[in-house]
Every structure is written in C-alpha cells, then in structure tokens.
Design brief:
Helices cover about 30% and strands about 25% of the residues. It has seven helices and ten strands. The protein has a ten-stranded mixed β-sheet, sandwiched between helices. It starts with a strand and ends in a 7-residue tail after the last helix.
C-alpha cells in the first residue's frame, strides 16, 4: 500500500490474518524495519506473520524514508531531514482502521534497531494511540521522553549486540522505569541462557519487561536464523520475541 504524507510517497505492507472477521475488531501491531533495511525484509527477518495468523492480529510493516526512521538521534536521512515519522505512523494506523475492522484500543508498536528506537519514540510521543511498545535491539533517541500516561514496555536485546549496545538498550528501560513510576524488584524468568525481568509495581498497573538474550547479536529473537548474518550474529531462539511480545501486548489496552 502507498500513501502521500508530507509531500512524500510512503509505503506499508498489511498482513491480514486468515482468521480475520470483519465483524470483530482486530488488534494491530506496527513492525518497523532497521536502518538500511526495508519493510519486506522486516517481514522475513522478524517472521511475525506466523504469530499474527495464530493469534489473529493485523501486522503492518511501514517503510521508512531512505531505509531509515527519524527516531531522534538515529538514523540516516529520516533523522537528518527531520521527517515526521510519528505523524506518518499515526496516518498509517488511521488508513488501516478505515479499511479494516480495527480495535483502536489495541494498537501496538515494535521494531528492529532503528525501528526499535522508533517504537520508543512512539511510546514517548504517541501514547494516546499505542497501547504498548516492544523495541528489539533499540535504544532511546530523543532527549526528553515525557509520555502523556504510563506506557507498558517490553524490550529485547542481545548481550553481544555490536550495533546498538546492550547498555544503551538497558538505559532506555531505566528511563521507562522512571516514567512509569515502577518500584520494587523485578521478577526473573529464565529461558535457557537468556532471561526476562518484569517490573510490575508501576503506575496504573502497567509493566516494564527487559528480555536479555545470551548469546545474541543484532538479531530478532526466534526470527529468521538465516537472515541473522555472521556480521550481526550470533542468533538466539531461547525465546520467540513475537510470541513473548504478543503475550505482553495482549494484557494491555489503551485506558478509557
């Protein structure tokens, strides 16, 4: 699909699950590609359509400008040119909602790398639209994240990520713990050599989760092992990011 936005012809791919029923509002997950990648590559890299078909949500893969998203400090022409990607992604959700039966209280955002940065930005600046976010190998690219409400966040990051450091990913989570007023110790769940920490003592009953993959490079947990190339690997499927984030997303809707 294509649309004009801010004088630019923009594109996005919509995957409608087999079980879609026009009479039943479906959830939507926006899944954004990494820097120097494209939406069709993100379909393959994340392998999210499998989960979408099983769980019945609509998966939408938008395309950035010159293979990049303006997530603040990162990345490429979209950032240096000040592209309004928050506005574009809002417009994509509006257009998908006009054509399909969508539950506007169950719209979520995820993305890989630069797309992960972008999902952080959507949590900060579009918390009225996105019920929860799940950055993969992303970090915070804007200096001031002041969401209008507490936002549930589930992040995934490899310890051996050489492109977006694990420390930067963890710093973004620490920022969300502050924004969401989370107190108390997290609950740990192990998956082989990997683990997830979940903080639940947060404002308005939101949660923050950080899943640490070890060993894993700049890849999508449980996504395509073939596309997790030697330069960005190692690959890890101790847990499937799509299944884990959907389990997380499905517990949260936009507040009334």
């Amino acid at each position: 699909e294509t649309m004009w936005f801010d004088g630019l012809l923009r594109g996005y791919i919509v995957h409608v699950p087999d079980a879609y029923d026009p009479g039943t509002p479906a959830a939507v997950v926006l899944n954004m590609h990494g820097f120097m990648s494209a939406n069709w590559q993100q379909v393959l890299f994340s392998d999210m359509n499998t989960t979408a078909d099983r769980e019945g949500f609509v998966a939408v893969y938008p395309d950035g400008v010159s293979s990049s998203w303006n997530a603040g400090t990162c990345c490429g022409l979209a950032a240096s040119g000040g592209v309004d990607d928050v506005g574009f992604l809002r417009a994509v959700v509006d257009e998908v909602s006009a054509r399909l039966c969508i539950d506007r209280r169950r719209v979520y955002a995820t993305g890989m790398s630069n797309g992960g940065y972008m999902s952080h930005r959507l949590g900060c600046e579009a918390s009225d639209l996105f019920a929860a976010i799940a950055p993969v190998s992303g970090a915070m690219g804007i200096p001031d994240c002041h969401p209008a409400r507490p936002v549930p966040v589930a992040a995934f990051h490899g310890l051996q990520d050489l492109l977006v450091s694990y420390e930067d990913g963890r710093a973004a989570i620490d920022e969300w713990l502050g924004n969401d007023g989370c107190t108390g110790d997290p609950v740990r769940e192990d998956f082989g050599g990997s683990y997830c920490l979940t903080w639940s003592g947060c404002t308005d009953d939101v949660e923050v989760m950080l899943c640490t993959l070890d060993p894993m490079g700049h890849c999508w947990p449980g996504g395509s092992d073939v596309l997790c190339l030697p330069g960005i690997g190692p690959f890890n499927d101790d847990l499937d990011a799509n299944d884990a984030m959907w389990s997380f997303f499905s517990r949260f809707t936009l507040p009334d």
